[in-house]
Design brief:
Elements lengths: L22 H8 L25 H9 L10 H15 L11 H7 L30 H13 L5 H8 L3 H16 L2 H4 L4 H5 L1 H4 L20 H11 L7 H4 L3 E4 L5 E4 L19 H7 L7 H12 L27 H14 L19 H5 L14 E3 L2 E3 L2 H9 L2 H16 L8 H12 L6 H8 L3 H4 L2
Antiparallel strand pairs: 1-2, 3-4
Helix pairs in contact: 1-3, 2-3, 5-7, 13-14, 14-15, 18-19, 18-20, 19-20
Bound molecules: calcium ion (2 copies).
One calcium ion binds next to loops.
């Protein structure tokens, strides 16, 4: 076994024996409405000083968590006992700040930090400013929509006319304004707001771009990735197709886009396509020359689901994994904590070529054909994998499961929340944020524009 494999992807933990990768998710299973779960799962610092050392709240919790069970606790004992233990320490005040632990968890403040205390008392209206500082202010929202979505302030006469409207008419005008702005090049054009929102998912590199404005070593044209992203996020389109599309999106002149069945630079055949995940650029960048391309799975998980395996997010360990087909040493305890999730998440990516000479696109024999000499068990690498506990036969099924997951809906809503509200949902905004991503998955039918109409009605957006 190669010890160098221990550093693989930086996923190995310094303290495997004491780490509890299941803890953040178990917490949210026990207290799903806790504000700390609004943005995904709580930070380790809820219970730990520096993991594995516990803070004052973590110590109280550990004392009453499954007291009869052997130490260190198994994951099952931990999960099984957590809800009762949280209830038991609720009336205590770990940080002595006057608010009991239950009140702090409900308010989203930190039960082990005396400087973090639930805010008392209602908001007091300010008489000083033009905006209504105590709640939703339609005039503030009106100006904000103009700036955020149309790219400039409203004309003074428009603002005056808006303020003169009755409240119902003001709300109707806000939605009309949003609709008009959503159709502007500022919002949905090339290099517009939505296009730029894809930067962290695409991770463009000018030097290896092909197509228009090609670099010196043209390997893939990521404009296709941006176009698919913009298409899925605009008009009446289903945002999940960023992961499930079996089509491409091409320029159609005058800044317009159109769906097409093939692109000459896109080698993956129709029934093997999974939206951006099987675009040439995604595979060039994330698969490259790797037999078991863990980077591809980790990037997809992070970019589209908001889960960073390296930060122990989204870990759902699979029995018998990691099998370590490529002999990278990932069965070491320090690595296995993350790789028992990451490796089965990666197998479905292993049949897609990255940068390998003439062979491009999908090849069911790719690992056996090109990588069998890398390790004795390499050729046994399966194509089937596991996505969050759910077996998937291939990447198309992987993408389908991902697109339908709560994490995808939450991450998509969070992208726009960050963009328009300006920061991650705070504990105080958790109720509005949770309602938003659930509506996106439900009544909005994964239409981003429908979700944005709901977002502009939130206090978080419209209260100055
Ligand atoms: Ca307290
Ligand atoms: Ca506190």
């Amino acid at each position: 076994m190669r010890r160098g494999g221990l550093l693989l992807l930086g996923l190995c933990l310094a303290t495997p024996a004491a780490a509890k990768p299941v803890a953040p998710k178990a917490f949210c299973d026990a207290l799903p409405e806790a504000p700390a779960c609004a943005g995904g799962v709580p930070a380790c610092t809820l219970c730990h000083a520096v993991p594995p050392a516990r803070n004052a709240f973590g110590k109280q919790l550990a004392e009453v968590l499954a007291p009869e069970a052997p130490r260190p606790l198994s994951d099952d004992d931990f999960r099984g006992g957590l809800a009762a233990a949280l209830a038991a320490v609720g009336p205590l005040d770990a940080d002595d700040d006057g608010a009991d632990n239950a009140a702090e968890l409900a308010a989203g403040t930190l039960p082990a930090d005396a400087d973090s205390v639930p805010r008392a008392g209602p908001c007091t209206p300010s008489m000083m400013g033009a905006w209504n500082l105590c709640g939703y202010d339609p005039a503030f929202a009106f100006k904000r929509i103009w700036l955020d979505v149309c790219g400039h302030s409203p004309a003074y006469a428009d603002l005056e006319a808006f303020v003169a409207l009755e409240p119902d008419a003001q709300m109707a005008r806000l939605h009309d304004t949003l609709d008009a702005c959503l159709d502007t090049p500022f919002w949905q054009g090339k290099d517009g707001v939505v296009w730029r929102l894809a930067h962290t998912k695409v991770r463009p590199i000018r030097a290896v771009k092909s197509g228009e404005n090609a670099g010196p070593i043209p390997l893939g044209d990521y404009d296709d990735d941006y176009r698919l992203f913009v298409w899925t996020q605009t008009d009446d389109h289903d945002a999940r197709e960023v992961l499930t599309a079996d089509y491409f999106v091409a320029p159609a002149g005058f800044g317009r886009l159109e769906k097409v069945a093939t692109r000459t630079n896109q080698p993956v055949v129709g029934e093997r396509r999974a939206g951006m995940l099987t675009h040439r650029w995604f595979l060039v960048l994330n698969v490259m020359f790797t037999g078991i391309p863990r980077t591809a799975a980790a990037h997809a998980y992070r970019a589209f689901l908001g889960l960073d395996v390296a930060r122990m997010e989204g870990l759902v360990p699979v029995e018998g994994e990691p099998a370590d087909y490529d002999d990278k040493g990932v069965t070491e305890p320090a690595c296995a904590a993350c790789h028992s999730t990451l490796d089965p998440l990666t197998y479905p990516f292993s049949r897609y070529h990255g940068i390998t000479g003439r062979a491009l696109g999908y090849d069911p024999q790719r690992v056996a054909r090109y990588y069998r000499n890398e390790a004795p068990t390499m050729a046994q690498t399966p194509e089937a994998g596991v996505f969050m506990g759910q077996p998937v036969a291939d990447l198309v099924e992987w993408a389908e499961a991902a697109a339908n997951s709560d994490d995808f809906a939450r991450n998509t809503a969070r992208d726009y929340w960050r963009l328009l509200v300006g920061h991650d949902p705070t504990p105080g905004e958790a109720a509005e944020f949770n309602a938003l991503w659930k509506a996106f998955k439900g009544e909005h039918g994964y239409r981003v524009e429908a979700m944005l109409h709901a977002l502009i009605e939130t206090e978080a957006y419209g209260a100055p």
